[in-house]
Amino acid sequence: MKNNIVEFPDRTAIEKEAGAWLIKLDGDNVPSAEELASLREWLERSPVHREQLRSFAEFWGKMNVLTELAVPLGHANGRAKRSFVENLRHAIPQLGQASIVTAVIVIGVATTFWLRPDPFLSSNDFYATAVGQQRSMTLADGSVVLLNTNSQIKVAYDNEYRNVRLLQGEAHFTVEKNAEHPFRVYAGNGRMQALGTAFSVYLKDDTVNVTVTEGKVELACVSRLVTNQLLQQETPLGTVKSSGSNAIVDSGFVETLGTIKAGESATLQGVLGTDTVSTIDAIEIVEVQEMAKRLSWREGMLTFAGDPLEVVVDEISRYTTVSIEITDPDVRSTRIGGRFPIGETDAMFDALEANFGLRVTRLSHNHVLVSVAEE
Question: Which residues are CB-contacts of 247 (< 8 A; sequence separation ≥ 6)?
Answer without folding.
Answer: 156, 158, 226, 227, 228
